[in-house]
Amino acid sequence: MAEEGRAPQSVLFACGLNSIRSPMAAALFRQRFGKTMYVASAGVRSGEPDPFAIAVMDEIGLDISKHRPHTFEDLEEWEGLNFDLIVTLSPEAHHKALGLTRTLAADVEYWATPDPSDAAGNREQVLDAYREVRDQLERRINERFGKTAAVNE
After folding, report:
1. 3: in domain
2. Beta partners for residue 40, in sequence order
3. Mean pLDDT across 83-101
4. Domain tally for the chain?
5. Residue 5 has pLDDT above 60, yes or no
6. Local structure of residue 47 (DSSP, 8 states)
7. Is 22 inside a domain boundary?
8. What is the 3-state secondary structure (H, E, C) of 7-28?
9. 69 lies in which domain range?
10. Model confidence pLDDT, tens digit, residues 133-150
11. Of the candidate ranges 33-37, 82-86, 89-93, 94-98, the one whose mean pLDDT is the lowest
12. Residue 74 burial by CB count (10 A; 0-12/13-18/19+): exposed, middle or buried?
């Protein structure tokens, strides 16, 4: 478990499909912290790459176009679920993560994050919804990890 006052050494961002929110959060986290902390993302179910998520991340210089959505089970099979912290971005992912803590020594935090794929309107309005989620995730990452990152350096 992550010790109070210390940043976790490994963080998993999780959502429903691992195609929008969690890969965006992982890319933002990776940009901010590089290799000082390990980060990954997963979903309850495996979705498809989302072109709007790719577009809004590209706007800030982050390429998530090669991300292939995968599930908690995929991640466990490939590398294990050895995370200090699981940040869940949807109720479904939060429920799944809490179930995993029966056998994992990981802290779980829920960050209520809207699903921008529910946005309606023209292309620009939909992109604005994705930008809002991207910016919200960036703020939350900075708030949650900004101060504690220096503790581990």
Report:
1. no
2. 12
3. 95
4. 1
5. no
6. -
7. yes
8. CCCEEEEEECCCCCHHHHHHHH
9. 10-146
10. 999 999 999 999 985 444
11. 33-37
12. middle
**What Cα–Cα distance (Å) separates residue 78 from each residue in 38, 42, 67, 92, 93?**
15, 12, 15, 22, 19
5 is a domain residue: no
Q: How many alpha carbons lie under 13 Å from residue 35 in its C-beta half-sphere?
A: 0
Which residues lie closer than 8 Å to 118 by C-beta, 6 or more apart? 129
Question: What is the residue whose two structure tokens read 């590398």?
Answer: 79
Q: Give the position of tokens 């010790």.
A: 3
Write the CATH number for 100. 3.40.50.2300
For CA atoms 23, 29, 129, 124, give the dihedral sign: negative
Q: How do 107-110 and 10-15 pair as beta strands?
A: unpaired
Instruction: Classify residue 127: in a domain, yes or no.
Output: yes
pLDDT class of 35 with cuts at 50, 70, 90: confident
